[in-house]
Design goal:
It contains 11 helices and 6 strands. Helix 1 crosses helix 6 (174-187) and helix 2 crosses helix 7. The protein folds into 2 domains: 4-197, 3-Layer(aba) Sandwich (Rossmann fold); 211-266. The protein is of the alpha/beta class and 320 residues long. A 6-stranded mixed sheet has the order 2-3-1-4-5-6, covered by helices on one side. The structure holds guanosine-5'-triphosphate and magnesium ion (MG). Magnesium ion binds at residues 16-17, 38-39, 58.
Length: 320
């Protein structure tokens, strides 16, 4: 019996480690109770459910208090590349999303887009979007309304839902966590190669050439432009005392320098190169024609790329 791998993703503080702790009954996992982000590395926890061996993969969240989204994406990409090379594919992805935020923040949209690009449309049917923090809501109907809004919007959860993703409320207890894992198992038609894994193979592990990397690059560019505009506007604004203006400008310039540095750093970010021979070996060992065929798709892409000498950076996203 092989392990069923499920990744748990979501922004920092969404409740990923808590979810895994509830599902497994483990009380040795580090849960963050302060403002700082908690989980630093990717780790696995095992459990058995209905006679099936499940491995839950805990991940550090985007919007980390000390690391940039680029750092987190690189960490996830490195893990995805390494596990792909070993033939360990995900059978499900649980995206945890706190529902207690009082409006659809721009940052929530950004991270949602990034998540979509990591998975790719082919993997949407393996996604469960589980909403957390319901007990923090004064009025539950607000939470229901927020879920509906996000489901309706095509460029929020709508696209994923239309392609088979499911949304569910998580009640922060053992039964709820197990129910969600059962939902992943019920959906299952076997493991999936994520878009990001395929793209890392095609692009020698270069993050900036993947859809998620390109999305992050666009977000950073947008951020730099917005800060530039804010600086110009502030300079024109009349009546701000010199000292105050200087401090505000200094802060904005610092933020702009950081975003520009991140932009430049993104082009140097890489996951380890995935060895195509290794993939071929495990794919062959996997036996059955279906799994072999699925496993070799990225290999065909990569070989095709070598043959035509294609420019990976400008490649369109792989559609489902
Ligand atoms: N009310 C409520 N609180 C929760 C829930 N899930 C987690 N928490 C609390 O939220 C805080 C953060 O939880 P974590 O499990 O550490 O969050 P995380 O997603 O692992 O965060 P990082 O490791 O920083 O990425 C802790 O204080 C938890 O007790 C939930 O469903 N409802
Ligand atoms: Mg955590």
């Amino acid at each position: 019996m092989s392990d069923i791998l499920i990744a748990v993703l979501g922004v920092t503080g969404a409740g990923k480690t808590t979810f895994i702790s509830k599902a497994t009954g483990r009380n040795d996992l580090r849960i963050g109770h302060g403002l700082a982000s908690c989980t630093q590395d990717i780790s696995s926890s095992r459990l058995e459910i209905d006679g099936k061996r499940v491995v839950l993969i805990d991940t550090p969240g985007f919007d980390d208090t000390t690391r940039t989204d680029g750092d987190i994406l690189e960490l996830i990409a490195t893990h995805l590349a390494a596990t792909y090379a070993q033939g360990q594919l995900l059978s499900g992805i649980i995206l945890l999303q706190p529902i207690n935020g009082n409006r659809v923040q721009g940052s929530e949209r950004k991270r949602n887009r990034l998540f979509e690009k990591v998975c790719g449309p082919k993997a949407f049917s393996k996604v469960i979007i589980a909403t957390t923090m319901w007990s923090d809501l004064g009025n539950e109907s607000i939470g229901t309304q927020r879920v509906e809004e996000r489901r309706r919007e095509a460029d929020f959860w709508g696209g994923m839902v239309a392609n088979g993703a499911t949304t569910v409320r998580h009640d922060n207890n053992y039964e709820s966590a197990r129910k969600i894992i059962r939902m992943v198992l019920a959906k299952n038609s076997g493991p999936v190669v994520l878009q990001m894994q395929q793209e890392l193979v095609q692009n020698d592990g270069r993050l900036a050439a993947t859809s998620a990397g390109r999305q992050l690059g666009l977000d950073l560019r947008e951020q730099v432009e917005a800060l530039k505009a804010e600086i110009e506007e502030l300079k024109r604004y009349p009546g701000i005392p010199d000292q105050e203006l200087r401090l505000e400008l200094q802060e904005l310039r610092q933020k702009m320098a950081e975003a520009s540095y991140e932009q430049e750093k993104l082009s140097r970010r890489r996951s380890p190169k995935i060895n195509l021979d290794t993939i071929q070996q495990w794919a062959t060992a996997a036996g059955g024609m279906a799994s072999l065929g699925a496993a070799l798709i990225p290999l065909y892409y990569a070989l095709f790329d070598i043959m035509i000498g294609g420019d990976c950076d400008t490649r369109h996203e792989i559609q489902g």
